[in-house]
Amino acid sequence: MTDATGPAMRAVVGAGAWGTTLAVHLAKSGPVTLLARDARQADLLIEAGENSRYMPGRPLPEGVRITGDPETLAEASEIVVFAVPSSAMRDSARRVAPSLARGSISLSVAKGLEEASLRRMSEVLAEELPPGTPIAAMSGPNLALEIADGLPASSVVAAADEAVSGRVIEIVGSRAFRLYRNRDVIGVELCGALKNIVAIAAGAVDRLGFGDNGKAGLMTRGLAEITRLGIAAGANPLTFAGLAGIGDVIATCASPLSRNHRLGEELAKGRSWKEIEGTLPGVAEGAYTVNAALALAERHGVELPIAQEVHNALFEGKSVQRCLIDLLARESKDELADFDDWMAGLGLVRAAGGGPDH
Question: Less crowded by CB within 10 Å, the N or C end of the chain?
């Protein structure tokens, strides 16, 4: 266990599976404050000595100081990690803003969009935290329970200032948790938010037995529509071929640990979203992001057919079978129909032969 003496210069806001995992991870190199939702949740965690709801059987080390008091974050002079659902990000930021230490980095690890404003999580933090607060976002294939069990993982840290992302990597990264930097904050955050929607569809495909070929096709076309929206929003197309993009799509669409994948499986059983919502082991962000994604796509004049069918299954009462049949019935198109937009995003042009101009 880590020595709990001395100030906790690092803090995590949010005591779900991901927040608890990151608190335990950070505690390996020094004490860390884990800010629970309220005093009651903090007391339950302290009494149990573990996060019984999300991470049973994994004791919390002494170096994790659990509290419901946001004023304790004043000690966190290095970094404050925001590991709350996207729907709670704004309220959480407002709650802790008065207590944040000046110059401390605020790191969002949430993967979603705010439905009312269509804001990304770093934008929400920028609006609610003190002016000048260094802000970064982290995303990638990081299933919490695997990282909690010490299995190797990689993610990408995005910030406009490379000094900020570099500092996050120094604080959070380790041999088993390998971090890379990227200046494309828009792309990294949109990857994290939008891949959850594809994972819901992938879970349904698995449950219905569409096979590996069908699932591979869904994942690939899902990545294509994620990329299409990302480019329209100003992201770098190459980000979607990296850890935050294809890496997280693979993990979230394939793993039984993914809550979004599980949601898709349950929908394919004929259950409604209202029946499923309260039974999931945590928040399936894709369900809370799909409407914002469709609204953002409409703003940019982009089509998201898979996201539209996920919305239909969740909120319009359309059967998953019908949704997938309608996707299969769509008119065939040129696979590289969006190629010019991708190349334009990289400052390149299409050659006469149809590929990049070498």
Answer: C
Collapsing DSSP states into helix, strand and coil, what is residue 135?
A: strand
CA distance readout (Å), 30 to 5, 61, 130, 213, 299: 9, 11, 26, 46, 45
What's the mean pLDDT in 214-230? 96
Superfamily grouping for domain 10-183: NAD(P)-binding Rossmann-like Domain (3.40.50.720)
Share of the chain above pLDDT 70, in %: 93
Phi, psi (deg, nearest 5) at residue 34: -110, 110
Distances (CA, A) of 309 to 93, 150, 158, 285, 331: 33, 36, 30, 16, 15
pTM: 0.92
Is the pLDDT assigned to residue 3 strictly greater than 60?
A: no
The fold for domain 186-345 equals: N-(1-d-carboxylethyl)-l-norvaline Dehydrogenase; domain 2 (1.10.1040)
**Active-site residue, selected from the candidate residues 28, 111, 195, 274:** 195
What number of other Cβ atoms are within 10 A of residue 16's Cβ?
Answer: 21
pLDDT band at 268 (very low <50, low <70, confident <90, very high): very high
* Contact predicate 249/219, CB 8 Å: yes
Where in the chain is CATH 1.10.1040.10?
A: 186-345
Strands 64-67 and 32-35, by their bridges, are parallel
The strands making up 64-67's β-sheet, listed across from edge to edge, are 64-67, 32-35, 10-13, 79-82, 105-108, 135-139, 153-158, 177-182
Each residue's pLDDT tens digit, 84-100: 999 999 999 999 999 99
Tell me, yes or no, if 195 is annotated catalytic: yes
CB 262 within 8 A of CB 280: yes
Q: Which two tokens stand for residue 219?
A: 């994942």
